[in-house]
Prior knowledge:
The chain is of the alpha+beta class. It has helices at residues 3-9, 36-45, 136-165, and strands at residues 17-29, 56-60, 74-79, 83-93, 96-101, 107-117, 123-133, 169-180.
Amino acid sequence: MNDDAKAEALQPAPDGVGPLVQRDYWALIDRSHCRPSGVMKLVTSNFPELPASDVVVFQRDGGGDPHALEVGDELDIRIRLAGPARVRVVHRCKCSVTLATLKGHPEAGRITFGSYRATDGNVVFHIRSRARSSSLLNYLGFLIGGDPMQTTTWTDFVNDVAHTCGSGVLGSVQVETRTLEPSELEPGDETLDAPTFVADGD
């Protein structure tokens, strides 16, 4: 597939319907034995195994090369009550990886998984998605039951990472959801290959 075709397959947030929603899930890792870059090495190498399989199943394109995810890699997804979908890695750095939805996914947008240090030195694992529903039908379905299912998926993911890299979550997983207005976006925020946040501080 050439570069134009690859870009055409993406389903960015401006192509969706309804509000642009930013969802954040994050926690401090209790007694982490990994630096933030080590957390992300684990996440990108074991990504399909980390989400709760009763809600969503990820599979590497082509069956499963165990290398760490890199830009251009694609994942097949089967989401309970929503069917099959695909995402592509569009950004990767030492402390984060960003996936973008491809056409046919129930959402249009990007999600970044990143790790960094809090001001007290503790290691944080953070997920931030920025997306719209990909169609009016998907938007209505999300209003009915998709939001709680998505929250469960990513809070469980944070918990699994915290228990793999340390002694679990210090305190609790934090969740924040808000609608973004166009005036809040900086130039370049919705670039297709940009992370949804910058994970800095190893």
